[in-house]
Amino acid sequence: MLTNRQKECGVTTIEYAIMLVLISLLIAAATPDISNAVLSVFSETTSVMSK
Fold first, then answer.
1. Distance in angstroms (rounded) separating the CA atoms of residues 51 and 39
2. Backbone Cα Rg of the chain
3. Which of 6, 8, 42, 47 qualifies as a cystine partner to 2, CB 3.0-4.6 A?
4. Is 31 left (phi over 0), alpha (psi -120 to 50) or beta?
5. How does pLDDT run across 11-46, given as a tens digit for each residue?
């Protein structure tokens, strides 16, 4: 059986994960130029490696 401390730790971990996802989505939505630049770099890298 889980103790209160173990239950709190699990909830805290989930809360941090949700906050991290929300912050990441906000940053991606606020700065689409950066996400496009990152995708461009990966696309160029893939095309160079496939030659």
1. 19
2. 19
3. 6
4. beta
5. 788 888 899 999 988 887 888 787 788 888 889 998
